Amino acid sequence: MIDRGAIRARFSERAFIVNDAFATALEVALALEKPLLVEGPAGVGKTESAKVLADALGTRLIRLQCYEGLDAMTALYEWNYPRQMLRIRLTESEGTSLDEREAQIFSEPFLLRRPLLEAITEDRAPVLLIDEVDRADEAFEAFLLEVLAEWQVTIPELGTIRAKHPPHVVLTSNRTRELSDALRRRCLFFWLPYPSLPEEIAILHARLPAVSHALADQIARAMQVLRALPMQKAPGVAEALDWARALMSLHRDHLDMAALEQTLGCVLKTHEDHDVLTAHIDALDPVLTDGARPLPPGGHGLTTDFGFGSVSTPDR
After folding, report:
1. Is 251 found in the same domain as 116?
2. For labelling, which of 7, 42, 158, 222 has a CA lying 20 to 30 Å from the CA of 262?
3. Which residues span the domain enclosing 9?
4. In 68-180, at which residue ranges do the beta strands (DSSP E only) sit?
5. Nearest CA to 288 among 210, 221, 206?
6. Nearest to 246 by CA among 257, 260, 235, 236
7. 213-243 per-position pLDDT tens digit
8. SS3 label, residue 61
């Protein structure tokens, strides 16, 4: 088992900056063999952390993407019906009994393993990522509790299948709905917030080594400003990285108003959030290289193209 120092080092080698608190949570989850529920805003690296953990442990990542209407069978297994039908047709003339033919088609070769069954039957403990568990309904959550408690499932045609090696489980949630107390008690918990200014600068340099120090600093400070505004969808780390890549592709080594106008569509994803920034555009003046912008001639509003159409900035 690896300690938090090794976790931080291995994550850093894979360009994922993890602080001491998160590394400790991962260490404890691995030591206690308990699921870790990671909650936080969208785009802060919850899903990516599970991917990096699997790579750092040298094991397989198995991902179950949750969604409304997800049922137990879809998450566990399905029978390969086309192959079963083909086998039935090919064996019609063999003279075998109905029971024998049924036993043939409901056997391991015809079983399609879905993420939960795959995680249980791996020869080496994988990392099981149950992504956006808050999007699944309460019935699936209740089923998941049983699997997490026992690490075994029953397939009527095959019997009970028990885990050879219980997987390392990471559940993620964006809190679109409140999870049950039973599920929370089953898991360890960690809240993954937006990164601090130094952390975000470090993330930009780790993921994009070619980014200039000035540009990384400006992007990180701009993200701090944007997240403090009353946005519908505050930008996450993923948007900061997209923004940096876009600016670098345009050969920009600093962030000014022209660059902001050209690339803000990488960061803000709704028209309403563009309007919010328009109303609070002054907040970005200390971040931009060209500083405060002068009023246009005649004192009229400044029309600014923020990536997706024009919006009008009020007179200042």
Report:
1. no
2. 42
3. 4-191
4. 77-79, 111-113, 127-131, 152-155, 159-162, 168-173
5. 221
6. 260
7. 999 999 999 999 999 999 999 999 999 999 9
8. strand
